[in-house]
Task: inverse folding
């Protein structure tokens, strides 16, 4: 029973970070109708960005976060121009395999540049633990959570109140109607992709002080993001946020009850169950999965 | 596309290979081309003909590899029986996957298949008592045909050639039979097919189960040939991608496409390995960069794959002397 506050706190911290990854994925799906199978690779690149800045320039990951923001956004925009733009109106299968190809290529680039070994960003505050109300938490994890919440909140505000956000939501609802209203949907797609990539890249930078980096680490996180995104309803940003907390809860609770070795099985089974019982997710439109969206 | 001559030429050339070539390195390449081609063709049964694009087929491949390896090492059972057990298990899992994901389309189905293969990966790599966990299983070499302990690579060529030819015939059946036309109808427009009385749901499940069983058979032979089963390889998403990449590159939903794609990929891989021999990670990276870029470029310019692309371009330019 005394473990419950600790488990709750861990769930919230972990869920916040998962949310930032999942929100970018679901934004891209919602507006562009593309499931980005290379999403985890951008997380991995974000982690390597932090690692590189730390070892070569001695830059703290949180400084990298601020200075690297334009780099991440630019990288996302560039990947859209080079890879996604030509297939934006193609069939689902073409888009799926284009992002799969992007994922393979990015992983391989990381493999050539940094080898398959795990790399670490050992900051001075690596092992600092904060105790608060009987709950012990890692400082880097708290910082990552804070950044994740900040970015997620900023994205929600942007989508809700800014004119550009409104344009993006209009495109998500009906891209043809949006185009008829004079919206340059091509630019909306480019911006959506770049914003989604920025979210996951930022998540990568703040995760770097917590987890080791290696070229295929993206898969581990992106699988969780897929679970969260489908559970929340593909394309539903608020749903993804809530679902991230649910998935984190399953992971934290599962690790506590049955041990860390089998925790992945839990959320994968949760994932399969959702896909079977209610593929549209908690808040999604029922039937979306059959219409093919 | 209707002509079988290119395929006859391909398989005849493969059959002549061991007679003309004695070099173990080239024979190894030929075996891998046929084996990966057969696996890609197995994927093609579901992904190409039925339109059930899966990124989790490594699960079935791994089931085949593990069944034979475990039965062989623990109870000294023949890999041929292991092959049947693996195919049987894969059929069962294929039915379950097909049944559960029946309503799912497009990205939802792909995500379901990835999750499914990841579950099997975790079971194989964590269930230490039974599967030896993440260490993998070395397949013991017991000489003889019944135990598949064959040292002669020429014999292996003919063994996998039989498998490859069988898969070609399966695909030819799907291309030309009534069942195959029904599957094509389901793939192109499931609702229209349903309204015309095509049992779409049942056909999809059957295609996935058949594809799973064939993939498992390829997995068994692969494990017996290579001699080692590593859970992080045989159940990986990368391996699943490899199957579909070969089929997509050569021509998705064509009988010869998977073999052409597998040939191109294997030649690229082995020639790079020969050139940079033993550099390790760096080489793997270069090969994979090309692999990813080829996939992106194929999707951009020839999403149907090379064979249909060639056929289309030949049609567009009629031979000289004919009137258009």
Result:
């Amino acid at each position: 029973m005394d473990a419950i506050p600790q488990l709750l706190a861990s769930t919230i911290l972990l869920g916040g970070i998962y949310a930032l990854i999942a929100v970018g994925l679901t934004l891209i799906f919602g507006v562009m109708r593309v499931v980005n199978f290379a999403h985890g690779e951008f997380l991995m690149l974000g982690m390597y960005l932090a690692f590189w800045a730390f070892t070569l320039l001695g830059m703290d990951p949180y400084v990298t976060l601020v200075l690297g923001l334009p780099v991440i956004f630019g990288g996302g925009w560039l990947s859209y121009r080079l890879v996604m733009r030509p297939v934006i109106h193609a069939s689902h299968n073409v888009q799926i395999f284009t992002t799969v190809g992007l994922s393979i290529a990015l992983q391989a680039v990381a493999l050539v540049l940094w080898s398959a070994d795990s790399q670490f960003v050992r900051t001075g505050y690596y092992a600092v633990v904060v105790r608060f109300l009987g709950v012990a938490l890692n400082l880097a994890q708290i910082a990552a959570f804070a950044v994740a919440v900040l970015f997620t909140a900023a994205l929600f505000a942007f989508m809700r109140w800014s004119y550009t956000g409104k344009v993006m939501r209009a495109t998500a609802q009906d891209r043809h109607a949006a185009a008829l209203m004079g919206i340059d949907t091509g630019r909306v797609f480019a911006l959506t992709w770049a914003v989604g990539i920025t979210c996951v890249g930022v998540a990568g930078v703040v995760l770097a002080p917590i987890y080791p980096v290696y070229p295929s680490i993206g898969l581990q996180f992106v699988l969780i993001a897929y679970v969260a995104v489908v559970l929340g309803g593909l394309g539903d940003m608020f749903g993804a946020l809530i679902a991230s907390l649910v998935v984190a809860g399953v992971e934290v609770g599962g690790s506590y009850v049955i041990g860390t070795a089998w925790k992945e099985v839990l959320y994968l089974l949760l994932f399969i169950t959702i896909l079977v019982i209610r593929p549209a997710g908690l808040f999604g439109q029922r039937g979306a999965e059959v219409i093919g969206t | 596309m209707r002509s079988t001559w290119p395929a006859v030429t391909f398989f005849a050339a493969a059959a002549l290979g061991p007679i003309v070539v004695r070099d173990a390195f080239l024979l190894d390449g030929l075996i891998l081309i046929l084996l990966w081609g057969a696996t890609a063709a197995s994927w093609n049964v579901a992904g190409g003909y039925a339109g059930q694009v899966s990124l989790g087929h490594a699960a079935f491949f791994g089931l085949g590899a593990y069944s034979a390896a475990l039965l062989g090492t623990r109870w000294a059972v023949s890999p041929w029986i292991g092959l049947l057990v693996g195919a049987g298990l894969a059929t069962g899992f294929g039915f379950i996957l097909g049944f559960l994901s029946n309503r799912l389309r497009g990205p939802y189905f792909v995500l379901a298949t990835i999750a499914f293969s990841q579950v099997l990966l975790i079971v194989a790599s964590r269930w230490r008592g039974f599967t030896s966990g993440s260490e993998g299983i070395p397949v013991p070499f017991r000489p003889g045909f019944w135990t598949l302990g064959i040292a002669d690579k020429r014999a292996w060529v003919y063994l996998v050639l039989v498998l490859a030819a069988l898969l070609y015939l399966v695909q030819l059946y799907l291309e030309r039979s009534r069942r195959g036309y029904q599957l094509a109808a389901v793939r192109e427009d499931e609702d229209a097919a349903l309204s015309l009385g095509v049992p779409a749901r049942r056909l999809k499940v059957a295609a996935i189960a058949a594809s799973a069983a064939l993939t498992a058979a390829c997995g068994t032979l692969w494990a017996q040939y290579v001699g080692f089963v590593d859970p992080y390889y045989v159940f990986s998403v990368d391996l699943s991608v490899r199957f579909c990449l070969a089929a997509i590159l050569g021509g998705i939903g064509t009988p010869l496409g998977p073999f052409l794609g597998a040939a191109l990929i294997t030649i690229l891989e082995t020639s790079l390995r020969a050139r940079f021999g033993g550099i390790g990670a760096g080489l793997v990276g270069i090969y994979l960069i090309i692999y990813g870029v080829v996939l992106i470029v194929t999707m951009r310019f020839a999403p149907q794959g090379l064979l249909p692309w060639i056929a289309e371009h030949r049609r567009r330019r009629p031979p000289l002397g004919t009137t258009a």
